[in-house]
Amino acid sequence: MFGSQGKRDLSLELQSQIPILRPSIHSRRAKLTVKFQDLYGFAVEGNVDDVNVLNEVREKVREQGRVWWELEASKGANWYLQPENTIGIALKSSLKISALTNAITLKRLIRKGVPPLLRPKVWFSLSGAAKKKSTVPESYYNDLTKAVEGKVTAATRQIDHDLPRTFPGHPWLDTPEGHAALRRVLIGYSFRDCEVGYCQGLNYVAALLLLVMKTEEDAFWMLAVLLENVMVNDCYTNNLSGCHVEQRVFQDLLTKKCPRLAAHLDALEFDVSLVATEWFLCLFSKSLPSETTLRVWDVLFYEGAKVLFHVALGIFKMKEDELLISHHVGDVISILQTTTHHLFDPDDLLTVAFEKIGFMTTNTLSKQRKKQETAVMAELDQRVRRLNSLNLNGK
After folding, report:
1. What is the pLDDT of residue 90?
2. Which stretches make up the Rab-GAP TBC domain (predicted)?
3. Which stretches within 163-270 are classed as H helix?
4. Which of 15, 77, 180, 300 is such that its CA lies 20 to 30 A from the CA of 160?
């Protein structure tokens, strides 16, 4: 349990990490674009209104941090890391009412955001990464990285190609030290799971995990639990079959949740995969501002892959009126990209995603995935046969 001095220290540390952004007087007067670094070191461009929103978000983060510290003081240190504090377990067992109360409290807290200082610990436990790591020898990660050092595969070549293109300009990631750490995590995982190996998009996910988790080993295990337990199968395999299935499920959900918008986009011959493929493969890390992405990940690691559908639908829902009067596919893409890049307040997005989209269960999504799998696999097989035929004819 934290004493009063401990809480003060944590509060001071949190505040020191969340500076107030102050654009110059000239930029305030002229409403010019301003540039600054966010909490995780990413360069951000926005107008003065964006800066004001970011300052409001930073104050919300401080307030949310105070809520977490107060709960630790009243419920006991690390109360949220206890295994019974998951709603599924609490409902299925004869645990005390207090356990169910804790589980509901935790779900609400996580949707409001995990404080940056607590993210590594909370994610590692609640995602299942800690449990996964506990099943192997303590030296597993170090042994793995040493064993694969110097080995060359198609995956290692692609990783080396992608390293300098992963968040270029970041003050740590885009340095020899940052590249080396990211390389070890990605190459280590490519040998742990040869079926996945490496897929473009994972570089952005692993890079952001490194920034949050602080250590390579913890980032490695978060990547492992994400690919092996949180996400659906085959999202990152060679043919991306799982990702294709997710796109089809997303299209079905858009038709169900936003029928007018879906009909309009269909009339424009807009394919949702034009934007949603990157959203799903990079888990929004290339599309949303960093703190908004991490708020999505807070919920993703606790509630599972259905969160990605909520958020993707939320983005379309937020801009439904504007999208309904668009005339070209290019307009749709521009509206969505501009929206995602300026979603500096995570609450704006998550409120729509969870309160205006409606309820979705994992079981319902699983049934929809199974319905789409057959069509996707048939389409992929046809594509392979066509390519083989072209290759034979070209010889």
Report:
1. 41
2. 113-304
3. 176-192, 202-213, 216-225, 241-257, 259-267
4. 300
Q: Judge if 249 and 367 occupy the same domain.
A: yes
Give a yes or no: residue 220 inside a domain: yes
Distance CA 193, CA 179 (A): 21
Band (pLDDT 50/70/90 cuts) for residue 3 is: very low
- Whole-angstrom distance, CA of residue 146 vs CA of residue 208: 23
The neighbour count for residue 142, using CB atoms within 10 Å, is: 14
CA 216, 212, 272, 245 torsion-angle sign: positive
Question: Which CATH number covers residue 316?
Answer: 1.10.472.80
DSSP 155-168: HHHHHHHHGGGSST
Interval 303-345: pLDDT, tens: 999 999 999 999 999 999 999 999 999 999 999 999 999 999 9
Place of tokens 């490519």: 190
| Residue 392: both structure tokens together | 């034979």
Angle formed by the axes of helices 176-192 and 154-162, to 10°?
Answer: 150
Quick one: tokens of 91?
């409902």
Phi and psi at 36, nearest 5°, equal: -160, 170
How far is CA 97 from its chain centroid? 32
Let me know whether 99 and 149 are in one domain.
no
| Cα–Cα distance, 362 to 368 (Å, whole number) | 10
Within a domain: residue 126?
A: no
208 and 276 housed in the same domain: no
Q: Tell me which residue of 295, 390, 301, 281 sits closest to 349, measured CA to CA.
A: 295
CA 82 and chain centroid, separation: 24
Q: pLDDT tens digit string along 236-292? A: 877 788 888 999 999 999 999 999 999 999 999 999 999 999 999 999 999 999 999
pLDDT score recorded for residue 236? 85
List the domain range (segments joined by +) for residue 293.
241-381
pLDDT confidence tier of residue 357, bands split at 50, 70 and 90: very high
Total tally of structural domains belonging to the chain: 3
- Residue 217 sits in the same domain as residue 249: no
